[in-house]
Amino acid sequence: xxxxxxxxxxxxxxxxxxxxxxxxxxxxxxxxxxxxxxxxxxxxxxxxxxxxxxxxxxxxxxxxxxxxxxxxxxxxxxxxxxxxxxxxxxxxxxxxxxxxxxxxx
Length: 105
Ligand code: HEC
Fold this sequence. Notes:
Elements lengths: L1 H16 L10 H11 L20 H7 L4 H9 L12 H13 L2
Helix pairs in contact: 1-4, 2-5, 4-5
The structure holds heme C (HEC).
C-alpha cells in the first residue's frame, strides 16, 4: 500500500517533468521487444500475433482506450495488474511500451 503510494508519487513527479509525454516519447521498437517478452502471453500485442488469453484487451484496443491519455496509461503500467506478474518495469520500459502501444493504433 505505502509502496504503491510512493510509486505513484514517483510516476507523478516524472510525468510532471515530462508533461509533453506523448505516444512518441519512447522507443517503440524497444517497447515491442518488452511487449513480446512480457505481455504477449496474455495480450495480443500486434496484428500478426494470433493467440493470447481470452478476455484480455488487445494492445490495439488499449491504444484506442487511452488515446490522448498516455499519462494515465503510463501510470497504469507503473503498477502490476493482476494477473500480470510484478515485473517492476523501469520508467524507460514504460515509455517504450507506451510508444509501442501507440504504434498499434
Ligand atoms: C498474466 C497475464 C497478463 C500479462 C503477462 C500482462 N497482462 Fe495486461 N492485462 C491482463 C488482464 C487480464 C487485463 C484486464 C484486466 C485488468 O484491466 O486488470 C489486462 C489489462 C491491461 C491493460 C488495460 C487496462 C485498462 O485500462 O483497460 C493494459 C494497459 C495492460 N494490461 C498492459 C500490459 C502490459 C504492457 C504488459 C506487459 C508488460 C501486460 N499487460 C502483461 C493480463 C496480463
